Amino acid sequence: MRKPPEHTISKDAIKAWKITAILYEAIAWVLTIVGFILFITIDFPLWIVLIVAVLTAISTYFSIFMLPKLRWRRWRYEVFEQEIYIQHGILVVSRTLIPMIRVQHVETQQGPILKKFGLASVSISTAATTHEIPALSNEIASDLRDKISALAKVDEDDV
Amino acid sequence: MSKPKRLHPAAVILHIVIGIRNSLFFFILLFVTLFDDKLLYAFLAMLALLLLIIITSVLTWQRFTYRVEEDELRLEYGIIIRKKRFISKHRIQSIDLTQNILHRIFKLTKVEIETAGTGAEAEASLICVTLTEGEALRAELKSISSREQHENEIEEEAYLAQTITRKQLLLAGATSGSIGVLLAIAGFAFSEIERFIPSNFYDDAYRWIIGLGLLIMVLFIVGTLLLLWLLGIIGTMIKYWNFTITKVDEDIVITRGLLEKKQITIPLKRIQAVGYAESVIRQPFGYATVIAEIAGGSNEKGEDFSTVLFPIMKVEEVEAFLEKFLPMYVNKQNNMQSLPKRARKYYIIRMTIPALLLLGVVFFVFPHLSWIPLILLAVCVGLSLLQHKDAGYLINGQKLLIRYRNINKVTMVLHHKRIQAFNKKQNWFHRKENLARLKLSIIGKMGLGKHYTIKELDVTDVDDLSDWYSYRKKG
């Protein structure tokens, strides 16, 4: 665990995350606009609306322009014969080891946004935890799923 | 045992009791809405409801049959929708016998059969069979043919067993969690009373009477606290009465309870981690509770949702106890790796921030009550120092001993092969100071994971642990 894992996830992940963030921020902006309308029509306190607007602007900057890139840069994974090694996190860097013999099942998932970029995420479940590698290209994701599933042997002593 | 059998007829009574309990709301609703002018209708409706419950109870009992056939437990039940449930003997994880008061009067028992499946409910529940039948059923389902003759040879006395002594039971009750809450209440109450005393000194005429009143009040409060404490003791005694742990072949069997007698079977294979917890109250007296983490759908709850293997014993006795029952979890080494000194400030900051916030708020809103958060702050600082001091780990071959404290000091022994995932986390400050947070995941109750976290270990220690855990061969 001294060295970070080798592989990065697909660079398109940044775009996909940006689009997801834009959708969420749109909701925040709609609320802000409603606030302004309320201010004009029923004299809703302006300072509340302004605070909401400033907060929305800040969160828009962070979640659309800053975080996706940082997040992508940190996201790494590596699959060995005996275990899976994952790193992620922007401020708090988390590194996880999952032994192959502890893997219960693997699955690939694809939402509408990931689909647009030809991406899929792989989630790996043990009996106690679930780990997700987001936004890999379709082929890599399905290769990875098949590889992990082939390597995941059942331990004799398992419960 | 191939003929389909019914439960004991007393099951009807139990079904009726459960039925009435479940529809108590309707009874009350009927009574309230029709009480004024249509009392007769209310009684008729209640009678009808009662009749319905009785009929369904009888039918439920009549339809429910069980038999053991071809290494399977086969249940058939259901009034309108007929259901058949077959459970393979080899998939059964545990068979628990529980007796409440009604069961015990008629020498009956409830049998709950669990597989590894998730969910709080047992997979099969025979609510009422005779005790001998229940024990026979358990023996039959437990025995896997090759072991069958072997088992008959061993006498009951040959099994290892340990029973709680009266003294231990009393101690367990006296130091159970409730006393902490009581002490907090007591402290609060006494300090509040003190604040009222001076105002009473001014008025000489009322002084004596109010003094007496105050005395009565103090006595009353002390009495209430004592009563609550006694209730706590009684509660614990009822729960852990005659607590006995027995090792039967590959299972740990626990029996306990005064009013409701419980018998729990835990297969050794299902145990994920074993250790002991020293609660704040018990630690000064050198006592601990032996606990285990068990995988599967057991609904048996103990302290912090762990299963209690023994309610109370001296910390020095734990090793001998484990040697006897779970030798693979004994740890003889004692050179634990603690946290570095530079980690201490994180612990203090984390614990004091909520207390400081509270202090700030209270100081501005109720300045005269500031002493409460101040005491809290002192307690938090003390606790954080203890948390830092107690945390640590020790690698011993395939075993890993970890110790941490939230409020109670917990020491657990985990096996390498039982750890499902290994996680290391570092925030920005941690990276500057070469610290890291360790998280180990094992299988917990009801299909959920149980996670052990040690915060702010030295990063080289975490890396050493990751090398220990990693299945990759290091070059």
TrEMBL record, chain A:
Parts of the chain that traverse the membrane: 21-40, 46-67
Domain YdbS-like PH: 72-148
Keyword Membrane: yes
InterPro entries for the chain: YdbS-like_PH
Keywords recorded for this protein, A-Z: Membrane, Transmembrane, Transmembrane helix
Protein name in UniProt: UPF0699 transmembrane protein YdbS
Species in which this protein is naturally found: Ornithinibacillus bavariensis
Automatic annotation (TrEMBL), chain B:
Transmembrane as UniProt keyword: yes
UniProt xrefs under InterPro entries: UCP026631, YdbS-like_PH
Transmembrane segments annotated in the record for this chain: 12-34, 40-61, 169-188, 208-231, 346-364, 370-386
Domain of life: Bacteria
Domain named YdbS-like PH: residues: 61-138, 240-323, 391-469
Keywords from the UniProt entry: Membrane, Transmembrane, Transmembrane helix
PANTHER family: UPF0699 TRANSMEMBRANE PROTEIN YDBS, UPF0699 TRANSMEMBRANE PROTEIN YDBT
Protein name, entry field: UPF0699 transmembrane protein YdbT
Organism: Ornithinibacillus bavariensis
Source lineage: Bacteria, Bacillati, Bacillota, Bacilli, Bacillales
